[in-house]
């Protein structure tokens, strides 16, 4: 039995990494797919209640982790409705039928038109080219109906309990109109709004440069410099260094295309 546990640990070690080991909670990270989307699992150590943020490709790794650690998956929090951030929802929902899927209503609705939007905006030739990559093809063939209706359409400032943690949601539009950042204690899951030395693109369905600038500045003003930022893509960062060194948007100037 000991050997088996040891073996499982090694397998998980290669696929997942633990970012934060605080006294009362942990954050586990999984890098998924060709667009290198960050998926996170946060759990309260005492109650073992867990939430996934943005499940992408290969959700079975997380499913195994949850089962092996006897966690109770309470929520799936989606930062936005782009396929690389939601791809794993149907499989996880099937495994854990009681889990509550939470996202904004506008991004849920846009999931059904985003493929057509992409085709109208960029043309069939780009779709044909992208489909040659098997992982991108999987994203493009993804049917949002498989997700089912979300349990909770998030309102600005809505909060959720996860064991002793309070997870708060805030509207941060710009990269997508219904993008949501989630925060608890000294950490912020920033989706595709704020990333290490960059910000999310706005050439997306419903994207808005003006809104994104506002959202990023809202994050800079709202959180202390020491706040750890777990972004939707790229490496971990913090509010203080982005505020000063992010060339796209600092606290007082922007340089976005
Ligand atoms: Zn996105």
Written overview of the protein:
The chain has 257 residues and is an alpha/beta fold. The protein has a single domain, classed as Metallo-beta-lactamase, Chain A, CATH 3.60.15.10. 33% of the residues lie in helices and 27% in strands. It has ten helices and 15 strands. The strands form three sheets. It has a seven-stranded mixed sheet. Strand 1 and strand 2 form a beta hairpin. It is globular, with a radius of gyration of 18 Å. The N terminus is likely disordered. Bound molecules: zinc ion. The site of zinc ion has 4 residues, from loops.
Structure described in brief:
The protein is an alpha/beta fold and 257 residues long. Helices cover 33% and strands 27% of the residues. The protein has helices at 2-15, 60-68, 83-86, 89-95, 105-110, 114-122, 124-130, 134-140, 209-222, 239-245, and strands at residues 17-21, 25-32, 37-44, 49-53, 72-77, 100-103, 152-153, 159-162, 165-171, 180-184, 187-191, 194-195, 198-199, 228-231, 237-238.
């Amino acid at each position: 039995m000991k050997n088996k546990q040891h073996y499982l640990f090694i397998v998980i070690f290669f696929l997942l990494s633990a970012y934060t080991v605080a006294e009362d909670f942990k954050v586990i990270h999984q890098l998924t797919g060709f667009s290198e989307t960050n998926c996170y699992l946060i759990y309260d150590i005492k109650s073992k209640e867990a939430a996934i943020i943005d499940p992408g490709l290969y959700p079975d790794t997380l499913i195994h982790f949850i089962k092996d650690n006897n966690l109770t998956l309470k929520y799936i929090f989606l930062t936005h409705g782009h396929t690389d951030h939601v791809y794993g929802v149907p499989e996880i929902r099937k495994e854990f039928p009681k889990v509550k899927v939470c996202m904004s209503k506008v991004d849920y609705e846009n999931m059904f038109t985003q493929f057509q939007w992409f085709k109208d905006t960029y043309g069939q030739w780009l779709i044909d080219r992208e489909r040659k990559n098997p992982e991108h093809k999987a994203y493009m063939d993804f049917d949002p109906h498989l997700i089912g209706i979300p349990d909770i359409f998030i309102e600005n400032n809505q909060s959720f309990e996860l064991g002793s943690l309070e997870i708060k949601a805030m509207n941060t539009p710009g990269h997508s109109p219904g993008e949501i950042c989630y925060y608890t204690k000294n950490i912020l899951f920033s989706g595709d709004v704020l990333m290490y030395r960059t910000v999310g693109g706005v050439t997306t369905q419903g994207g808005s440069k003006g809104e994104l600038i506002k959202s990023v500045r809202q994050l800079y003003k709202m959180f202390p410099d020491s706040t750890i930022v777990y972004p939707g893509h790229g490496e971990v960062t913090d509010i203080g260094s982005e505020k000063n060194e992010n060339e796209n948007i600092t606290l007082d100037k922007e340089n976005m295309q």
